[in-house]
């Protein structure tokens, strides 16, 4: 059910922005969901698009002209954007079918000036839009200060929370060793310095954690790392305690975050590595003006951060067992309470958090819990609030996608359960999703394989029925860091360029989360996290890899149609549930233990199982 747009006066906010643009001699402005670090999730101070339009998703852009405005979102948010953004104020534009450049190219007039904040956009995006506007006789203008900030009178300040030490006992490697690895990479590529802007890369490289972005334990900071293994860290000084300074040591020079742009001017004549996917346009401009020799390279922390060491893997396995026990208790509670009525999506999400907090070591959720029933479950990235909150009623499916942040690991799990008796359609679709999940979980593949080459395994049974899902099948996950981490992914090839993706490496953590969504009715998703591990295969002529599942919680047996499972798939499910019982059983007793044993019982075998 769509909810009317209520709350703040977004028409007034749009008018205030247009007045500010006119005062600056600008005809338009582009407002992304981004920060100075090109983060996926941003702090409250950087939620400019949400303030302007009301859109609460994690990916999107708004463009404003004197007479028209538009919001640009991908297929994950097609329904959500219409619920949250007033269609009388903004056109709804789908991407990648269209783009900001295409929309502006159609609607801009010759002579108009469109502004953008160079601290919020990638350099290639800016240059592409500059060309598109020039073709229409218009101009793209980099602003010195963001006009949204001028119109947003009660804008929050950036977080002042301190950063803390993430010790080598948990990280499995000292910060000094990580800087040495990066220094060796710089020397091998005949480079002097690399610019590091991604918040999780900074946190990983310096073995620090922060509280500046909800659900992601990072601190707002930039860094310059040099070939002599020293570094300059740009962070608000009040965020750095004596303990953190001692941890960083004399080889790391600490500066105010505001000094970062000026420090780029000191790199004149140096060969500087910059990641165009993670560093904003303003950084390239500052380096060009300084006379630095820019070389485009991927952030050197990205790949080693993604390939977890043994200490990180041991920690994340422990975190998943702890987290799985909380999820199992929640599933038992839902099975008992939800059919009685009186429960809603917000209440269920709060109860799940309470179960996680009982461990005493939960640091935060790893993202806003997707607690969705009925038609809300058909929105893959639904975010419940007071206006969308639905009662959990009998005859529906309830989908919960959630995770926790612990000192030793980051979790992300989705389970779908039936409230009451599921329909035959629900059971068929759930079983097809499960079959795809199993096919990916049991995949064996040669070293060098990319995630896009495996994606079809998870979709094949849905495709056989002429249905699909509009999101990727798997994303990388950090270790007490970002719940979405690159460069690994499992998804359809982006632009058909599978060869540009990172091959899967042993030690990487990914999600395995196929789904199905029937608009206006229900959603299904089954998500576990997996680790890429070596595979020993008799007679193998290639170095082979596979997946180890590290998420443990029961999968809803009453939603499975055993007649659609092959014997091998039923064996996998029984083996998985046996491991769930073995892992979680010691942490559960009494009625909780009895429920877990029943939930993990072997699946009833169909007389003639079909691999449909």
TrEMBL record:
CDD domains: APP
Domain Peptidase M24 C-terminal as annotated: residue spans: 543-603
Molecular functions (GO terms): aminopeptidase activity
InterPro entries (UniProt xref): Creatin/AminoP/Spt16_N, Creatinase/aminopeptidase-like, Creatinase_N, Pept_M24, Pept_M24B, Peptidase_M24_C, X-Pro_aminopeptidase_P
Domain Creatinase N-terminal, first and last residues per copy: 13-144
All copies of domain Peptidase M24, residue ranges: 316-532
Entry-linked Gene3D superfamilies: Creatinase/methionine aminopeptidase superfamily, Creatinase/prolidase N-terminal domain
SUPFAM superfamilies xref list: Creatinase/aminopeptidase (SSF55920), Creatinase/prolidase N-terminal domain (SSF53092)
Domain of life: Bacteria
Sorted UniProt keywords: Aminopeptidase, Hydrolase, Metal-binding, Protease
Keyword Hydrolase: yes
Similarity section: Belongs to the peptidase M24B family.
Protein name according to UniProt: Aminopeptidase P family protein
Native source species: Sphingopyxis jiangsuensis
Lineage: Bacteria, Pseudomonadati, Pseudomonadota, Alphaproteobacteria, Sphingomonadales
């Amino acid at each position: 059910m769509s909810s009317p747009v209520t709350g703040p006066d977004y028409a007034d906010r749009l008018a205030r922005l247009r007045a500010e643009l006119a005062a600056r001699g600008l005809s338009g402005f582009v407002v992304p969901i981004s920060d100075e670090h090109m983060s996926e999730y941003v702090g409250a101070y950087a939620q400019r698009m949400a303030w302007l339009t009301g859109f609460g998703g994690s990916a999107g852009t708004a463009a404003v002209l004197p007479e028209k405005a538009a919001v640009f979102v991908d297929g994950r948010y097609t329904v959500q954007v219409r619920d949250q953004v007033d269609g009388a104020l903004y056109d709804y534009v789908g991407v990648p079918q269209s783009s900001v450049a295409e929309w502006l190219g159609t609607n801009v007039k010759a002579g108009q000036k469109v502004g953008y904040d160079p601290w919020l956009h990638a350099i290639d995006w800016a240059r592409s839009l500059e060309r598109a506007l020039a073709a229409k006789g218009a101009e793209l203008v980099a602003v010195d200060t963001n006009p949204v900030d001028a119109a947003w009178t009660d804008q929050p300040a950036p977080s002042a929370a301190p950063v803390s030490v993430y010790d080598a006992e948990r990280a499995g490697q000292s910060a000094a060793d990580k800087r040495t690895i990066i220094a060796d990479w710089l020397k091998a590529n005949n480079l002097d310095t690399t610019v590091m802007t991604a918040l999780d890369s900074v946190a990983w490289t310096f073995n620090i954690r922060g509280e500046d972005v909800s659900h992601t334990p990072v601190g707002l900071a930039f860094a310059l790392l040099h070939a002599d293994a020293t570094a300059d860290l740009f962070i608000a000084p009040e965020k750095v305690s004596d303990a953190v300074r001692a941890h960083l040591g004399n080889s790391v020079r600490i500066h105010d975050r505001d000094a970062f742009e000026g420090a780029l001017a000191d790199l004149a004549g140096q060969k500087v590595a910059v990641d165009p996917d993670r560093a904003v346009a303003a950084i390239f401009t500052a380096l060009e003006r300084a006379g630095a020799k820019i070389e485009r390279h991927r952030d050197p922390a990205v790949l080693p951060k993604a390939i977890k060491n043994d200490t990180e893997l041991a920690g994340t396995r422990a975190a998943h067992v702890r987290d799985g026990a909380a999820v199992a208790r929640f599933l038992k509670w839902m099975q008992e309470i939800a059919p009685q009525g009186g429960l809603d999506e917000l209440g269920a999400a709060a109860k799940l958090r309470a179960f996680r907090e009982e461990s005493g070591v939960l640091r935060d959720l790893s993202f806003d819990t997707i607690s969705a029933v009925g038609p809300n479950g058909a929105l893959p990235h639904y975010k419940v609030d007071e206006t969308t909150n639905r009662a959990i009623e009998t005859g529906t499916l309830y989908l919960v996608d959630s995770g926790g942040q612990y000192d030793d690991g980051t979790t992300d799990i989705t389970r779908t359960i039936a409230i009451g008796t599921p329909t035959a359609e629900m059971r068929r679709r759930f079983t097809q999703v499960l079959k795809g999940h199993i096919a990916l979980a049991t995949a064996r593949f040669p070293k060098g394989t990319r995630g896009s080459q495996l994606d079809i395994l998870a979709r094949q049974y849905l495709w056989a029925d002429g249905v699909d899902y509009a999101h990727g099948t798997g994303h990388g996950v950090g270790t007490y860091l970002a719940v979405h981490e690159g460069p690994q992914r499992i998804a359809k090839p982006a632009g058909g360029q599978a060869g540009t993706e990172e091959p899967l490496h042993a030690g990487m953590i990914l999600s395995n989360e196929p789904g199905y969504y029937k608009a206006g009715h229900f959603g299904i998703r089954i998500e576990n996290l997996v680790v890429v591990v070596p595979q020993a295969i008799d007679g193998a002529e290639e170095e082979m890899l596979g997946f180890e599942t590290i998420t443990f919680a029961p999968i809803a047996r009453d939603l499975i149609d055993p007649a659609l499972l092959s014997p091998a798939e039923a064996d996998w499910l029984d083996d998985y549930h046996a491991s769930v019982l073995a892992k979680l059983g010691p942490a559960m007793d009494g009625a909780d233990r009895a429920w877990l044993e029943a939930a993990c019982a072997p699946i009833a075998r169909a007389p003639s199982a079909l691999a449909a």
